[in-house]
Design goal:
By secondary structure, the protein is of the alpha+beta class. It has a single domain, classed as Nucleoside Triphosphate Pyrophosphohydrolase. About 15% of the residues lie in helices and about 40% in strands. It is globular, with a radius of gyration of 14 Å. About 25% of the residues are buried.
């Protein structure tokens, strides 16, 4: 078995739609990773044997140094990048403890739905953003 959970031939990935009133958190990918400087939701791959919720809590601690409360599933997206095929589940979430820090990302911002067009996001996130703007 590999290190990460899979869904068919896709890598199981989770992300957090972290809310603070009418704003949500977005993160800018670092320059040394694929899709450098594009914006995304915090999250990552689900490790083997880990629940999606546990993976999301771990990723938020590792990437932005906060403890989150995982809420309801917002939606599921499948996307094929040249280097990875992802099955992405994004959850509504709130910060229980901590303030977002730049542990892995180039930048983090709290934005409103109206500000979405001002940022260039990873392709897998486009359907999520359309649903947010609907």
């Amino acid at each position: 078995m590999g290190k990460y959970e899979t869904f068919g031939n896709k890598t199981e990935v989770v992300a957090a739609l972290i809310w603070d009133n009418d704003k949500f958190l977005i993160c800018q990918r670092p320059t040394n990773k694929k899709r450098a400087l594009l914006w995304e939701f915090v999250g990552g791959k689900v490790e083997f044997g880990e629940s999606k919720e546990d993976a999301l809590i771990r990723e938020c601690q590792e990437e932005i140094g906060v403890t989150i409360s995982v809420g309801t599933e917002f939606m599921v997206v499948e996307h094929d990048y040249p280097d990875i095929k992802v099955h992405l589940t994004i959850y509504n979430a709130t910060i229980k403890e901590g303030t977002p820090q730049l542990l892995e990302h180039n930048d983090v911002k709290w934005i409103t739905k109206q500000e979405i067009p001002l940022y260039e996001f990873c392709p897998a996130d486009l359907d999520i953003l359309k649903k947010l703007m609907a």
